Fold this sequence. Notes:
The protein is α/β, with parallel strands linked by helices. It is built from 17 helices and 13 strands. The strands form 2 sheets. The chain has an 8-stranded mixed β-sheet, with helices on both faces. The chain has a 5-stranded parallel β-sheet with strand order 10-9-11-12-13.
Amino acid sequence: MSEKAKCRGNPPWFPEARGRVNTLQSKIAAQTARLGVIGLGYVGLPVACLFAEAGFDVVGVDIQAERVEKLNAGVSPIEGDEPGLAALLAEVVRNGSLRVTTDYEALQDCDVVTINVETPVDENHVPRYVALRNALRSLGPVLKEGALVIVESTIAPGTMARVVKPLLEESSGKRANVGFFLGHCPERVMPGKLLANLRGVSRVCGGETPETAAVMIALYRHIVAAELDPADCVTAELVKTAENAYRDVNIAFANEVALICEAVGGNVWRVRELVNKSPGRNMLKPGAGVGGHCIPKDPWLLAYEAREKGTPIRLIPAARAVNESMPLHMVELLESALAEAGQELAGSRILVLGYAYLENSDDTRNSPSAVLVARLRTLSAEVVIHDPYVPGYQGDVVEMAQGCDAVVVMVGHEEYRKLDWNTLHTPVLVDGRRVVTDPVRQAPETLFCGIGRP
Ligand code: SAJ
């Protein structure tokens, strides 16, 4: 309870609310609390499975009927290698601890409901909360008296106070902290490690009130082995968006040092190795761009409300601009290498290695390769795309390299790190992820250039 509330004495609704919080606590402890999860994507699905595995009765709600059908058949709709998820899903569906529907009515008996829907930003970097608002409008009318609602989606600081709370009060006709309790526990998952991160990475439990935060910690203790930190909602919103903006800014720094190295004849990989020997330094890796579902979006969420209020935000947009420019820089490197080989980019045939946004992943969301491919095609180059993980782009790299004038490495897939570059016989090789550590030894026949290298 806030300091103000303490000195003023308990608000009139406090005794009733206190009783409901105690009821939530005891139901969670006894695992008789019924859980609902709205949005069964790469975050909601593993969350639902883990709570079901822990012994809770879980109902999932998703608007995509075909996804619901697949899930109720115990089949994971998530592509890519997610250790343990498919087997866990099949088990909790088989034993009936998880069932999925498109019908929000199924949530009416739930004591706890998590919301795990997409929260993108648009081309003007403005948060687009259509999915979040729809979820809140659909949940309100069926929300159980005294239920706990937890937003797990990543949201801009201020969203809980100015979007979620008023909208849920309006749609449910209940008052926050009396008729329902509200919290924000941002997810910290990563494709390829969904279950591992959910179990093993600490989480911030932001409650509208300290009592709510305490209930959230009791709940997540059932599935999280790492630290659970109590906070208020705005702190939870700030932590998640700041941790990803931090990563984006640091990647941008590495990219800018790489561009400087190219200009002055340094090798950014040697520079990075020696910089990181200095105490307290941890220079990240420069590369062909920054993709994914989190890093390109979360810095704009962090900055949103402050910018709206006129706070000068300069570093975050600048870092975004640097990272967004890297795929285009790769095109510049390619053009100059081809020119050195006496070849125009227009009319050339280019093999692009990697279309996922991350090494050893099939996830193509916001892939830097998409930006590069679009640019190459605009410049009238013919593009051949290979990616061992992405359906439609799999194949034999050596075969696909035949007749190509250049190879461009966009993703550091393990397969590329093991390639014998002499079998490709392409005149030009541009390395955006340092998969070629010693070009003279590994690719003596090609004209080589790489991000951050002389
Ligand atoms: N990248 C670089 N240089 C680096 C690191 C990454 O260019 O030094 C590029 C990657 O190639 C990729 C993009 O940035 O295109 C994002 O890579 P990432 O390693 O950050 O992976 P993500 O996008 O899955 O990030 C998520 C984030 N986790 C959450 O949002 C909960 C991030 O905060 C984590 O640090 C990261 O997973 C992780 O390493 O777990």
